[in-house]
Amino acid sequence: MPPRAWLVASAGVVTAATLALSCSHSKGEAQRATAADSSGTAVAARDPGAAFEVVRTVLQSPRCMNCHPAGDAPLQGDDSHRHLMHVLRGPSGYGVAGLDCSTCHGRTNPPDSYGPHMPPGVSTGWELPPPDMKMVFEGRAPRELCEQLKDPERNGGRDLAGVLEHLSTPLVRWGWSPGVGRTPVPVPYPEFIAAFRTWADAGAPCPAP
Questions:
Q1: How many CB atoms lie within 10 A of CB 138?
Q2: Nearest to 196 by CA among 168, 169, 156, 157
Q3: Contact 53, 44 (CB under 8 A)
Q4: Cβ of 84: how many Cβ atoms within 10 Å?
Q5: What was the pLDDT predicted at 93?
Q6: Helices (H) and strands (E) in the chain — how many of each?
Q7: Per-residue pLDDT tens digits for 87-141
Q8: Positions of the chain with pLDDT lower than 70, given as ranges
Q9: What is d(CA 23, CA 17) in angstroms, rounded to the nearest whole number?
Q10: What is the three-state SS of 87-144?
């Protein structure tokens, strides 16, 4: 608005100076709102407990949890329902004989123009953890999930550096670009990795039961 602009209101004339004061107030409110929105990230950057909660939020979002089910059937959809067509994990995580994951899941997401409910894909191939890895996210309480992440017998035989390396794979990062009709992971990827590092560097403490 030009410096000498006037706004006519039913109560009278509001000067540009009054408008400037109002704008300044609105700017302050916006700055406080932005600070409030980022406060969770700031806390997670220095508090390992808050950092793990960020990690948990990601791992138990549908995009991650659907491929880490409690049973042998993968989950699908934002509501994490059992995979249709009686799809099962199989002994290697690539599906059972005659119904391999690659039967429907290609090496990339279908074009958005195809619409929702199309099988997603990833460059390294679609898969679930083999059953002997016991990498279950579904139904885990925060402490249980935390302990599992640190246990090589339940995280794919990895130390925390190995877990972090796994989190950089195309299959994991697909959760942030899952294709049309699916809600991406709710935490930005850099914030997720930063939270994981904060938690791991602090000794990977687990929340109370």
A1: 15
A2: 168
A3: yes
A4: 10
A5: 96
A6: 7, 6
A7: 999 999 999 999 999 999 999 999 999 999 999 999 999 999 999 999 999 999 9
A8: 1-45
A9: 10
A10: CCCCCCCCEECCEEHHHCCCCCCCCHHHCCCCCCCCCCCCCCCCHHHCCCCCCCCHHH
Q: For residue 166, how many other CB atoms are within 10 A of its CB?
A: 14
Tokens coding 126: 């679609």
Q: What's the token pair of residue 206?
A: 């687990």
Query: CA-CA distances (angstroms) from residue 124 to 1, 107, 174?
Result: 54, 7, 11
Q: Please choose, from the candidates 58, 47, 59, 65, the residue with its C-alpha nearest in 3D space to the C-alpha of residue 205.
A: 47
Query: Which residues touch 104 (CB under 8 Å, ≥6 apart)?
Result: 119
Domain ranges of the chain: 44-201
Bridge partners of residue 7, in order along the sequence: 14
Choose among 28, 33, 6, 27: nearest CA to 17. Answer: 6
CA 64 vs. chain centroid, Å, equals: 7
Contact 194, 45 (CB under 8 A): yes
Report the alpha-carbon distance of residue 119 to residue 105 in Å, rounded. 5
Q: What is the pTM of this model?
A: 0.79
The span from the CA of 148 to the CA of 178, in Å, is: 26
Q: Distance between CA atoms of 177 and 168, rounded to whole angstroms?
A: 14
